[in-house]
Amino acid sequence: MKNALILAISLTALSCSYEKQKITPITQQDTTTLKNLKEVLWPKAYHDHDATLLAEILHDEFKMIDHEGGWSDRNGELEWVENSTYKPDSFYYEIKRLDIFDNGTAIISGTGHILSDSSETVYQSSNVLIRQNGSWKAISSHVSGVKKLVLQP
């Protein structure tokens, strides 16, 4: 009897906490917002060394694994963007996967292109974003496959 009472209380608590999680439906605006975030805002933040813009994109719990296997967090990325002198000619991102899930999670993966002088650096990245208080925030990134290509004049 005691075990049945504990089970009933546990199930009631679980159902109450589940009901508090309101899932906002996915809209076309979410797709547009995420594309703009990844193709325009995020590259702009790195290209222009705009730590304020990057801070708006990154979740407080953001973590990144770079192409060498090193880890960085939100503060490390903001510090790098603010202090770096690296300034490529242009930088753009090509989305190859954009999936938005009903639980307010999105995955964006694709190819980054960094053009500088007579070379192009190409890399692959995957990003996980979560919707929090109506805004999309990047919580995880992984970069791999960095290749520097020499462009022919």
Protein traits:
153 residues; alpha+beta; Nuclear Transport Factor 2, Chain: A; 6-stranded mixed sheet; 4 helices
Concise account of the structure shown:
With 153 residues, the protein is an alpha+beta fold. The protein contains 4 helices and 6 strands; from the N terminus they run H-H-H-E-E-H-E-E-E-E.
Q: How many domains?
A: 1
User: Major β-sheet, in short?
Assistant: 6 strands, mixed
For the largest sheet, list the strands in their spatial order: 2-1-6-5-4-3
Average pLDDT: 85
Radius of gyration: 20 Å
Question: Level of helix content?
Answer: 25-40%
Task: Please state roughly what percent of the residues sit in beta strands, choosing from under 5%, 5-15%, 15-25%, 25-35%, 35-45% or over 45%.
Answer: 35-45%
Q: Count the DSSP helices.
A: 4
What gross morphology would you assign?
globular
CATH class: Alpha Beta
Distance between the termini: 82 Å
Number of strands: 6
The poorly predicted ranges are 4-21
Give the helix/strand class.
alpha+beta
CATH topology: Nuclear Transport Factor 2, Chain: A
H/E element sequence: HHHEEHEEEE
User: In the CATH classification, which architecture applies?
Assistant: Roll
Describe the structure.
This protein has helices at 2-20, 28-47, 51-57, 74-83, and strands at 58-65, 71-73, 90-101, 105-116, 119-132, 135-150. Helices cover 37% and strands 42% of the residues. A hairpin with a 3-residue loop joins β3 (90-101) and β4. It has one domain: Nuclear Transport Factor 2, Chain: A, CATH 3.10.450. With 153 residues, it is an alpha+beta fold.
